[in-house]
Every structure is written in C-alpha cells, then in structure tokens.
Amino acid sequence: MSIIDDILAEKDHEKIRRETETNYREYVNPFALRMFKNASLDIIEGKREGACVYDISGEKYIDCVTGAGIFNVGRHNVEIVDGLKKAMDVYDMGGWISIIRERGLLAKKLAEITPGDLKFSLFCCGGGEAIEVAIKLARAHTDKTDIICMENSYHGVTGFALPATGRDVYKTPFEPLTPGYSHVQFNNIEAVTTTITKKTAAVLVEPIQGEGGILPADDDYLVKLRQICNKNEILLIFDEVQTGFGRTGKMFAAEHSNVTPDIMVLAKSISGGMYPLSCAVFTEEISDFLMAHPFTIINSFGGTSLACLAALATIEYIEKNDLPARAEKMGARFMSGLVILKEKYPDLIMDVRGRGLMLGMEFSEDSIGPRMAFQLRQNGVISIYTFNNPSIIRIMSTLVINEDEVDFVLNAFDLSLKEINAQEERMAKTT
Ligand SMILES: Cc1ncc(COP(=O)(O)O)c(C=O)c1O
After folding, report:
1. Which atom of ligand 1 is found nearest the CA of 156?
2. Is residue 359 part of a domain?
3. Is 283 found in the same domain as 257?
4. What's the whole-model pTM score?
5. What letter does residue 89 receive in the DSSP assignment?
C-alpha cells in the first residue's frame, strides 16, 4: 500500500474532517480555515461528478462556484480522466528543456480556435503568471511602459499582474509595486482616451469583470477600445481567464463583440480542472521580442506534456458537446428564473446580469452576499460572492449542468431569499 492508497482508502469522514481541520489550523492557515467556515464554504471535497461536488460526508451540492470558472467541462470529467490515465501510464509531466510534441499540438489548436490572427502561445501555470507574460510582451514590443487597467478588475496577485488588479487590499501591503499602471472606470471610453500618454503600451480588460461583480463590457466599448488602441498604436489585452472556453455562450467572450485583441490570456478552464495550465496567445506581429529572446520569459511547469494533453482533451470535449451553445441555453433558463426572483424580492435584489453561465445577482446591501452563500449551502448549492464586491453572488455552474439541475438551483435561491427576507422582516420589527 502506498501513501496514495492509504489516503484514498480512508472512509471515516469524521476522522478526515478532524485531521484536515487540525492540519489547516497547525500547518496551512488557521485564519483561512476560519474564513471558509464563516463563508459556509468549509466543504472538504470528496466525490466530484458532472455539475455536482460532494462533501466527504456524502452531502451533495450543485457547484455554482467552480473555482470561478475552472470546471467548464464538469467536475471530474471521466472522458478527460480516462485519456489522462492512459497518458500517465507512459508519461511524466515532461522536461521543459526539450521540445514537447503536445505543446506544439495545443498551440496549433489554440491558434485555430482563438479569434482573428492570434497565433503564438506562451504557456505558464496560473492566470496571474500569464497576465505577467502579456504585460512583458506588451512592454517589450512597444518599447513603452504604461498599462491602462480597469477599476475593480482582478488579474491575479503575482508580480506584474498585481499592480493591474484594481483593488488596494491586495496591493497596499506589498508596496512599492512595479510602476506604470493606471486604473480607469470600466465601460467608460473617455476615461481611457484621456489617460493615454506617449508611454502607454497597452490597455488590459476583462470582457466580463468577474471578481468586480459579473459586469459585462458593453459590446461597443470593446469595439471602441480596439479602434482607440489602433489609432494610438497601443496593444489591447483581453483577460479571458474566467470568460474563456464556452463560459459566456461563445468559445471566447471577445466573439460577442467581434473584436480581436493583440494578446488573449487564458487559464482556469483551459485544462478541464485536471492539471494547472495557463497561456498568453498573441499575434505574430508582437512575437518579435520572443524571436530575438526566446529564453527570457520561461518557467519549468508551464505547457508540460500532461497539461497540454489535458487541454487538448478539454477543447475536444467542449467542441464535441458544443458547450458554448449549452452555456447559452442553460444561461437563458437561469436568467428567466432569476428575473422572476428579482420581481418576487424587490427589496433584496437590485439586479441580475451576465452572459451564458457567467451570471450574478446583486443585492441591496453587502451583508446579503455572505448570508446568501450560507443559506444556499443549506439548500444544496455552493456559491460565493465576488471577491471585489460582496453584494454580488455569482452563479457560475459547470457548462454540463442540465435543466433539472438549473431548476434545483433556482429553487434553492428562492428558498434562501425567502429565509433572508424573513430575517430582514424580523430585524425591522425589533428596531
Ligand atoms: C479574470 C482573472 N484574471 C486572472 C486571475 C488570476 O488567476 P490565478 O489565480 O490562476 O493566478 C483570475 C483569478 O481568479 C481571474 O479571475
């Protein structure tokens, strides 16, 4: 018996919970554990299947967090797992100081499925790391330094990505940060035009702000951004870390407005939630720096054999099952239910919005987001408010969710809102 056999064989869920919480308290982060508990997200994941995740105790939940868009192809997609099992019989992850066949195959596939003339891919592990690559490429290609970003954006917390993230709480403790970043109001073209200077290298934007509160960019906003960037010889970077791979009803959210960025950043769902992978995909025109300096933006673990196989199998699954169309259909079903709930609870719900299966419900005050997360868990659904805006709860299920499961989630929202409404009424009476 190996240690893996031992770990997988343990079925006493009380023992697993005690041991895991102790290890978190003693060796991981006791404050993170407390926050998970407070947010009612202290689920220790056991079985994962389709649209659902099970606590080790066997409690079943529909996953409406999906790691903010990691599990587009479903939790523990068995088709992808079966392929990877075969690969693991013969491969390790692959050495990075060699030429990797699977990396070439994946880069070719990404060039085919990404919009316009996006062509080359540089691979890393996390979303933040790929944002850093995009910023480095933009600075190197334009020989300019400054990046225009959006207020309330989220692009990760690593070196060059952190200053791009539009919320101080992530940044202030680590100042001084790399200079050259400015933040302007999202969906406001004039704010961008008045911020451009001779030093501006790129504009960085999420086509739908995820952690900012599920805020879609207006279609003509992205079109105008493209025009302004062209006019001023500035690069346009789309962060499709949450929106990519079918989530919004198209393979990439950029397609809704028919705009091709110069660099598109992909992560999370790219490899089916089976193996870490991210990448920056960019046009041939801006590959000039890399051609001259092929080993200056490098890493050991990005684009390994196993990661690329996982991504190829994920893209195959998305295409074969037309998951973008499914996201659009199930998203529409969700949206009609959410609109009814908004009419039913007008004092609690300010707005419901989003695209495909990237949806959000905005509440009349911040405290309702965390309370909803708690109530939803009691009703068999896991969801969490957006990081930069606790008044918005996200609905980002897997894209394999079916009609019955959508209806189950809507019913759970109804029951949870009913309870919160009753709490509000009780509080109003006592004050
Ligand atoms: C839009 C967006 N960009 C970048 C990132 C950073 O990705 P990672 O956490 O993999 O570094 C995230 C993470 O949630 C994200 O939502």
Report:
1. 6
2. no
3. yes
4. 0.97
5. H
Gap between the Cα atoms of 250 and 270, Å rounded:
14
Mark whether 301 and 414 lie in a shared domain.
no
- Contact status, residue 357 vs residue 396, Cβ threshold 8 Å: yes
Residue 273 CA to ligand 1 centre (angstroms)? 14
The answer for 340, left when phi > 0, alpha when psi is -120 to 50, beta otherwise, is alpha
Ligand 1 pocket member 362 (CB < 6 A): no
Q: In what order do the strands lie in the sheet with 118-124?
A: 118-124, 278-283, 263-266, 235-239, 200-205, 146-150, 181-184
153/250 same-domain check: yes
Residues 326, 316 share a domain: no
Indicate if ligand 1 lies below 6 Å from the C-beta of 302.
no
* CATH code for the domain in which residue 263 is found: 3.40.640.10
* 59 within domain boundaries: no
12 domain residue, yes or no: no
Q: State how far the Cα of 100 lies from the Cα of 91, in Å rounded to an integer.
A: 12
Cα-to-centroid distance, 6 and ligand 1 (Å): 33
Task: Work out which ligand 1 atom sits closest to the CA atom of 211.
Answer: 16
Per-residue confidence of the chain (431 residues) as pLDDT tens digits?
899 999 999 999 999 999 999 999 999 999 999 998 888 889 999 999 999 999 999 999 999 999 999 999 999 999 999 999 999 999 999 888 899 999 999 999 999 999 999 999 999 999 999 999 999 999 999 999 999 999 999 999 999 999 999 999 999 999 999 999 999 999 999 999 999 999 999 999 999 999 999 999 998 999 999 999 999 999 999 999 999 999 999 999 999 999 999 999 999 999 999 999 999 999 999 999 998 999 999 999 999 999 999 999 999 999 999 999 999 999 999 999 999 999 999 999 999 999 999 999 999 998 999 999 999 999 999 999 998 888 999 999 999 999 999 999 999 999 999 999 999 999 888 87
State which residues form the domain around 378: 322-347+374-390+399-431
Q: Is 132 in the pocket of ligand 1 (CB under 6 A)?
A: no
